[in-house]
C-alpha cells in the first residue's frame, strides 16, 4: 500500500472545513506522516479496513519506517485494550500473513466486544443509580452539586444482575477468545520455527 | 497587530479567545513550561512558541510566517517513548515536525509552506494544535515490542507473580520442614525450587489466558502481556521453560509423587481454576485446593507419602485461602462484574461473608488438631490462638459490617497471619528425639536383651 499515492485532497479538505473531523484528520495526518517519515513505503498495516471496523478511533501514530517490530500503544479509552501496529515485510510468508491477519482480526473483535461491554456496563449502571435514587426520592445531585451514589450493597445488586444477564455472552466470548489465543500462539510458534529453519538452510547453502 | 487582525475578521475573534482558552487548558497540564510559552505568545497572533532545552531548536511561527526551520529530531529506532510526563524537548520537536507536514508533505519545501500557513483558517490552526498535542501525548506512549535484555528479569518477575511464587515456595518448604523425618538440605532445596518453578509456570499461563480481562481491571492492567512487553509465544515459552525443569526436578530429584502433585497443581490452576473464574463461583474452592497442595508437596518430598500431617497442613492452607480471597474480592466487585468474573462477592455476597468467617474459625480447629496427630506439640494451639482469634474477629467484623474497610483489614491481616502461623508451627514441631528417639532406645534395649 503506497502512502505517497494518497491524494492531497484530504489536506485541502481540512483547509476548507477547518473543523476537527476525525476521518479527515486521520487520513490527512496519516498521509502526511507517512510521506515525511518514510522514505520508502510504510510497512505497517494501517488501512482503515484493517485497523477499525466499528468506529473505534484509529490512532494517528505511525511507527518509524526502519523499525522491524510491532508497536503497542496506550490503552483504548473504551475497551482498555492496547492496540498493536503489526509489522509486515513485503515478501512475508503465507504463514506470517495468516498470523498477522488473524491478530488484526482478533484485535478488532476484542476491541468491539470490550468497547460494547464497558459502554453497556456504564450505561446500565447509571440507569440503575438513577432509578434507585428516584425510587428513594433523592435527586441525582446533592446540595453541593456532587453526584449522589448508592451504597456498595445496593450497587452489588446491579453487579450481580449484570453478570447474570450477560452470562451466555461471556461464556461464548470465553470460548472464542481461548480458541483465537491458542491459534495465534500456535501460528506464532510455527512462524518462528519456519524462520529459524530458513535461516539454517540459508547458512548451510552459503557455507556449502 | 493582534487587535488589528482580530478586528479584520470577526470570526477570528472567537478563535483568539478559543486559542487563549486552549492555551489555558494546556497550561493546566504542563504548567511549568507553557507559562513561558504563553507570555511570549501573547504578543503574536496565531503563535505557538516552543522554547526548548539546548538539545532542540526553536520553532516560532508568527503571523508573518517568520520562523526558523527546525530539523526534525531523528527518531531512534530502538527507543521506547517514556510513559511518564514528556519532557518539553521531545514534545516540542515532535510538535514542530507534525505541524509542518500538515501544510506541505515535504519538509524541504518549507518556504512555500510559509505562505500556506497564513492562508490557513484559524480554526484549522487551532484544531491542528489540539490534534497534535493529543497525538504527541499518544505517540509518547507507543512502544516497540522489542525485548531489551536488561528488562527481562523484571518482566519475568511480573509474569511469574514472583511474590506469590515466593509465598507458595515458602509453604512448600514449611511442609517439608514439618515432616517428621531428619532434615535433608539437598532434598529441601530441590523441593522448594521445583515448587517455585512450577508456580512460575502456572502463573505465566494464567496471565497468557487472561490478557483482555486483565486489561480491564485496575489491579492487573500493568502485567507484561497486557502492556505488550512480550508476545504470547514468549510467555508460553517461559512457562514451558519453567515447568519442564521444575517438574523434572521434583520427579527425578525428589520423588515421583511430588512431581505428580506439582504437575497436577499446574493443571488444576491453569485448566480448571482460570477458565472457571468466568463460569462459576466454585472457582474459589478449586483455587483453595490449588493453594493447599504446595505444603502437601513439601511433606511428600520429605517423607514420600501423604501422611495425616500433610493433610492437616493442606487443610490449614485451604481454610486460609477463603478469608484471604473473599476479603480481596469484596472491594473489586465492580471490576469483576464488568470483566465478567463470577465471584462469590458479586453473585452471592452473603455466602462470601459466611464462608470467610467459617474458615477463620476452622483455622482454630485445625490448629488444635495438629498436636492430636503429632505434627506439633500442644504449645502450638495455645500460642497460635491469639492470631487465630484476631483473624476470626476480623472475619466477624467483615461478616457484620461488610464494608470496604473491614474487607481491607481482613485481607491485610491474612497476609501476615499465614507466615506467622507457619513460623509458630515450626517452633512447635514435635521433636524427633522425644518420639522416635525413645522408641529407638527401647528397640535397642530389646535387641540386646
TrEMBL record, chain A:
Keywords of this entry: Membrane, Mitochondrion, Mitochondrion inner membrane, Transit peptide
GO cellular component terms given for this protein: mitochondrial inner membrane
Biased composition (Polar residues): 48-62
Stretch list, region Disordered: 48-67
Location(s), subcellular: Mitochondrion inner membrane
Keyword Nucleotide-binding tagged: no
Membrane topology, from the record: Peripheral membrane protein
BP GO terms, sorted: intrinsic apoptotic signaling pathway
UniProt keyword Mitochondrion, yes or no: yes
Taxonomy, superkingdom: Eukaryota
Predominant subcellular localization, coarse grouping: mitochondrion
Pfam families on file: COA8 (PF10231)
Similarity field: Belongs to the COA8 family.
Record protein name field: Cytochrome c oxidase assembly factor 8
Organism: Scyliorhinus torazame
From TrEMBL, chain B:
Key words, A-Z: Heme biosynthesis, Membrane, Mitochondrion, Transferase, Transit peptide, Transmembrane, Transmembrane helix
Catalytic activity, as annotated: heme b + (2E,6E)-farnesyl diphosphate + H2O = Fe(II)-heme o + diphosphate
The UniProt record lists the keyword Transmembrane helix: yes
Location in or out of the cell: Mitochondrion membrane
GO MF, one example: protoheme IX farnesyltransferase activity
E.C. number: 2.5.1.141
Pfam families: UbiA (PF01040)
Membrane topology: Multi-pass membrane protein
HAMAP family associated with the record: CyoE_CtaB
Protein name, per record: Protoheme IX farnesyltransferase, mitochondrial
Organism, scientific name: Scyliorhinus torazame
Amino acid at each position: 500500500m503506497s502512502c505517497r499515492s494518497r491524494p492531497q485532497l484530504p489536506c485541502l479538505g481540512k483547509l476548507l472545513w477547518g473543523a476537527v473531523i476525525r476521518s479527515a484528520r486521520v487520513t490527512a495526518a496519516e498521509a502526511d506522516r507517512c510521506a515525511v517519515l518514510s522514505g520508502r513505503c510504510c510497512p505497517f498495516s494501517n488501512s482503515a479496513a484493517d485497523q477499525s471496523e466499528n468506529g473505534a478511533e484509529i490512532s494517528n501514530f505511525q511507527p518509524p519506517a526502519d523499525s522491524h517490530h510491532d508497536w503497542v500503544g496506550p490503552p483504548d479509552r473504551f475497551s482498555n485494550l492496547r492496540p498493536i501496529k503489526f509489522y509486515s515485510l513485503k515478501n512475508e510468508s503465507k504463514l506470517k500473513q495468516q498470523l498477522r491477519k488473524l491478530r488484526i482480526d482478533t484485535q478488532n473483535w476484542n476491541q468491539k466486544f470490550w468497547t460494547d461491554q464497558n459502554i453497556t456496563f456504564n450505561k446500565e449502571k447509571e440507569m440503575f443509580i438513577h432509578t434507585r435514587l428516584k425510587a428513594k426520592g433523592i435527586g441525582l445531585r446533592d446540595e453541593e452539586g456532587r453526584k449522589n451514589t448508592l451504597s456498595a450493597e445496593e450497587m452489588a445488586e446491579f453487579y450481580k444482575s449484570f453478570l447474570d444477564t450477560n452470562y451466555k455472552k461471556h461464556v461464548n466470548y470465553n470460548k472464542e477468545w481461548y480458541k483465537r489465543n491458542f491459534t495465534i500462539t500456535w501460528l506464532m510458534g510455527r512462524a518462528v520455527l519456519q524462520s529459524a529453519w530458513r535461516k539454517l538452510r540459508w547458512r548451510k547453502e552459503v557455507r556449502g | 497587530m493582534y487587535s488589528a487582525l482580530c478586528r479584520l475578521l470577526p470570526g477570528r475573534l472567537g478563535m483568539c479567545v478559543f486559542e487563549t482558552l486552549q492555551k489555558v487548558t494546556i497550561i493546566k497540564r504542563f504548567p511549568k513550561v507553557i507559562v513561558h510559552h504563553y507570555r511570549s505568545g501573547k504578543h503574536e497572533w496565531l503563535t505557538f512558541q516552543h522554547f526548548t532545552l539546548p538539545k532542540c531548536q526553536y520553532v516560532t511561527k508568527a503571523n508573518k510566517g517568520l520562523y526558523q526551520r527546525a530539523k526534525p529530531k531523528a527518531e531512534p529506532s530502538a527507543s521506547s517513548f517514556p510513559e511518564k510526563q514528556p519532557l518539553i524537548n521531545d514534545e516540542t520537536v515532535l510538535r514542530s515536525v507534525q505541524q509542518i507536514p500538515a501544510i506541505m508533505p515535504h519538509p524541504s519545501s518549507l518556504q512555500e509552506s510559509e505562505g500556506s500557513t497564513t492562508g490557513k483558517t484559524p480554526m484549522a490552526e487551532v484544531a491542528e494544535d489540539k490534534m497534535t498535542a493529543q497525538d504527541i501525548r499518544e505517540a509518547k506512549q507507543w512502544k516497540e515490542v522489542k525485548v531489551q535484555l536488561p528488562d527481562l528479569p523484571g518482566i519475568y518477575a511480573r509474569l511469574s507473580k514472583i511474590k506469590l511464587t515466593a509465598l507458595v515456595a515458602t509453604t512448600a518448604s514449611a511442609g517439608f520442614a514439618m515432616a517428621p523425618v531428619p532434615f535433608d538440605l539437598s532434598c529441601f532445596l530441590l523441593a522448594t525450587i521445583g515448587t517455585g518453578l512450577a508456580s512460575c509456570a502456572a502463573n505465566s499461563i494464567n496471565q497468557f489466558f487472561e490478557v483482555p480481562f486483565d486489561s480491564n481491571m485496575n489491579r492487573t492492567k500493568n502485567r507484561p502481556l497486557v502492556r505488550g512487553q512480550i508476545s504470547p509465544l514468549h510467555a508460553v515459552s517461559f512457562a514451558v521453560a519453567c515447568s519442564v525443569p521444575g517438574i523434572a526436578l521434583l520427579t527425578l530429584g525428589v520423588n515421583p509423587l511430588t512431581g505428580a502433585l506439582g504437575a497436577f497443581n499446574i493443571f488444576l490452576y491453569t485448566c480448571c481454576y482460570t477458565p472457571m473464574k468466568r463460569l462459576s463461583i466454585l472457582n474459589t474452592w478449586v483455587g483453595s485446593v490449588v493453594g493447599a497442595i504446595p505444603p502437601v508437596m513439601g511433606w511428600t518430598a520429605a517423607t514420600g507419602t501423604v501422611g495425616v500431617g500433610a493433610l492437616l497442613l493442606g487443610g490449614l492452607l485451604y481454610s486460609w485461602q477463603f478469608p484471604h480471597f473473599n476479603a480481596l474480592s469484596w472491594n473489586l466487585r465492580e471490576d469483576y462484574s464488568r470483566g465478567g468474573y463470577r465471584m462469590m462477592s458479586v453473585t452471592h455476597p452473603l455466602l462470601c461473608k459466611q464462608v470467610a468467617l467459617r474458615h477463620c474459625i476452622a483455622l482454630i480447629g485445625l490448629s488444635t488438631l495438629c498436636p492430636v496427630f503429632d505434627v506439633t506439640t500442644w504449645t502450638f494451639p495455645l500460642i497460635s490462638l491469639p492470631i487465630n482469634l484476631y483473624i476470626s474477629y476480623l472475619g466477624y467484623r467483615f461478616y457484620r459490617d461488610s464494608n470496604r474497610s473491614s474487607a481491607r483489614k481482613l485481607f491485610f491481616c491474612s497476609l501476615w497471619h499465614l507466615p506467622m502461623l507457619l513460623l509458630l508451627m515450626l517452633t512447635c514441631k514435635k521433636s524427633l528425639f522425644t518420639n522416635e528417639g525413645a522408641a529407638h532406645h527401647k528397640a535397642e534395649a530389646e535387641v540386646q536383651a
